[in-house]
Amino acid sequence: MNLRVENYQELRQRAEAELKTLNLEEMIQVQVGSATCENASGAEAVYLEIQKHILASGRKDIYLKQVGCTGRCSLEPIVSVRLPKKPLVSYKLVDREKIHEIFIGHILGGSP
Questions:
Q1: What is the phi/psi pair of residue 64, to 5°?
Q2: Partners of 80 in the beta sheet?
Q3: Alpha-carbon torsion, ordered 50, 28, 60, 17, to 10 deg
Q4: HEC string for the chain
Q5: pLDDT digits (tens, 9 = 90+) for 79-112
Q6: How many CB atoms lie within 10 A of CB 80?
Q7: C-alpha 11: how far from its chain's center?
Q8: How many CB atoms lie within 10 A of CB 46?
Q9: Whole-number Å distance between alpha carbons of 61 and 28
Q10: Is 33 in contact with 72 (CB distance < 8 Å)?
Q11: Nearest to residue 82, comparing CAs of 53, 58, 55, 102?
């Protein structure tokens, strides 16, 4: 086996082990679509704004991640929120200003 494949496998195993320690089922999960077209629509700024809100809140139970294509170019950027034991809620045409409302109302307040 070549060195690149071995390095990849080791990195994958470490990432999977770390994800297991997070106990994602008990965390608030926030995902931002980050495909090329979403980034062109402002997804990167939206991601950074959510990240700022999480850091400012001091909360350790919020897991923020980027995902690939969410499938609706005309509605991007798309942000999805999943509270523990609740269904996934997706927000479309999100911008930096809408993040504050989503963060306070849904992520912290529990009300989509």
A1: -100, 130
A2: 31, 90
A3: -110
A4: CCHHHHHHHHHHHHHHHHHHHHCHHHCEEEEEECCHHHHHCCHHHHHHHHHHHHHHHCCCCEEEEEECCCCCHHHCCCEEEECCCCCCEEECCCCHHHHHHHHHHHHHCCCC
A5: 999 999 999 999 999 998 899 999 999 999 999 9
A6: 18
A7: 21
A8: 26
A9: 6
A10: no
A11: 102
Sign of CA dihedral 96, 98, 100, 102: negative
38 bridge partner residues: none
Amino acid at 35: A
pLDDT by residue (tens digit) across 2-26? 678 888 888 889 888 887 787 888 8
CB proximity list for 25: less than 8 A, separation 6 or greater: 84
Positive or negative, the CA dihedral 21, 34, 4, 2 is positive
Q: Within a 10 A sphere around the Cβ of 99, how many other Cβ atoms?
A: 25
Strand order in the sheet with 79-82: 62-67, 28-33, 79-82, 89-91
